[in-house]
Structures are given as C-alpha cells and as structure tokens.
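Take our chain:
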Amino acid sequence: MTALPVSSGSGSHSVFPPPANHTCFQCGRSFARVYILRRHEAAHRGQYPFWCKICGKGCLSTNNLRRHLATHTGARDHQCKWCSQKFTCPWSLKRHMRNFHQDKA
C-alpha cells in the first residue's frame, strides 16, 4: 500500500488510508468507515433522506442533492482556465484537465 503525503505545520509525514473492511452484504462493495456503509445500505433500501423537489430523485447527502440540482438549473460554476469550458462539478473539471490539459499543469 502506498503512503499518501500529508503536510503539517512542522513538516510532512505519510498517512495510510484506512482499510476498507466494512462490506455491504448486498453488493459486496467495501468502505473504510462504517457510517458510509450504513448510508450505502440505506440506498439499497430506497431510504434517501434528501429528495429533489423538481424530479423526485433521492440523494444520500445534502452535497449530492446540491450537485443534482445543478442538472436542473444548468449552473456550471467550475470553469477551465485553459479553454473556458464550464462544468457542474469540480471533479468533472478535474477529469477534463487531466484528459485535455495535462501538459499545462
């Protein structure tokens, strides 16, 4: 397992990610934290705590709901600094940068 570098105020050290030893009995997916497993299992049961008032889609967190709402509003708040293309989610921009502008970083 590869250590992830983490910086601190007095220097830097390595931290290993926690092992993904909490497994969903329904699909076999593993999680590092038990609370994430519990949230995942609730999705299997259709128990979503947050619901889109526009289309009725269920979400597991307020962050997921906020990202989903951007699909209805058309909001694209994350813009590429190289080609000005806009994205609804920061990871979509990150994927775009990796795929199209990797040599410019």
